[in-house]
Amino acid sequence: MDVLKNMIRDIPDFPKPGILFKDITPLLANPQGMRLAIQTMAEPFRKMAINHVVGIESRGFMFGPALALELGAGFVPVRKPGKLPFRTNSVSYELEYGVDQLEIHQDAVRHPDRVLIVDDVIATGGTAKATGQLVRELGAELVGFAFLIELSFLKGREKLGNDLVHASLIY
Ligand code: AMP
Questions:
Q1: Do 126 and 97 form a contact (C-beta atoms < 8 A)?
Q2: Which of 23, 40, 59, 148 is the most exposed place for a label (fewest CB within 10 A)?
Q3: pLDDT per residue over 74-129, tens digit each?
């Protein structure tokens, strides 16, 4: 996995002081890197009959469609408020300062769909947990979460309880 880690650039103090930002753009630009990233993210879910990969705006959109193709599934976007044109369900979740919201189309997934949620990074896990709530509220089965990067010192995995959490690279 060192080959993937070498394609991720650390940017100190972005977007604000104290954050070490994991910049995935060198990996996105590298065809072998992208292929390896998608393959390692897909691996545990290949035999899990996933119907829909749900990507979280915005960097979940950079891996979600490729992961969906790899798993023979469709892609569903979860977006920031006001971006989706059809009827939506929304969820609010806590940030370090304040609250944020995410939305999904009401007809995007349903029982008995089997859903995999994807994002580039799991940090505190709040964003992923809120997305899990959206998927379950629509009656679909949440099979698990796939991330390229886990920042394990922030313990986001604990916030996701007993759900299956896979990360290709752990820091
Ligand atoms: P969280 O809800 O705390 O797990 O934050 C996850 C979201 O924030 C993901 O969509 C990530 O893309 C982004 N994020 C959080 N921390 C970082 C970081 N250090 N580097 C890059 N992205 C991050």
A1: no
A2: 23
A3: 999 999 999 999 999 999 999 877 899 999 999 999 999 999 999 999 999 999 99
Is the peptide bond prior to 81 cis by the omega test (within 30 degrees of 0)? no
- Select which of 35, 43, 57, 96 is catalytic: 96
Q: How far is CA 145 from the centre of its chain?
A: 7
Alpha-carbon gap, residue 5 to 27, rounded angstroms: 9
Find where tokens 């996105």 sit. 28
- Nearest-atom number in ligand 1 for the CA of 119 is 10
The response to whether residue 120 sits with its C-beta less than 6 Å from ligand 1 reads yes
Of 2, 116, 12, the residue nearest 65 (C-alpha):
116
Strand 141-150: give its sheet, edge to edge: 74-78, 52-56, 114-122, 141-150, 164-170
Is the domain spanning 47-170 CATH 1.20.120.450? The answer is no
Catalytic residue (choose from 9, 57, 59, 110): 59
Task: Give the residue among 82, 85, 143 at the shortest CA–CA distance from 109.
Answer: 143
Q: What share of the chain is helix, strand, coil (3-state, %, to 5)?
A: 30, 35, 35
CA dihedral 45, 79, 103, 92 (to 10 degrees): 100
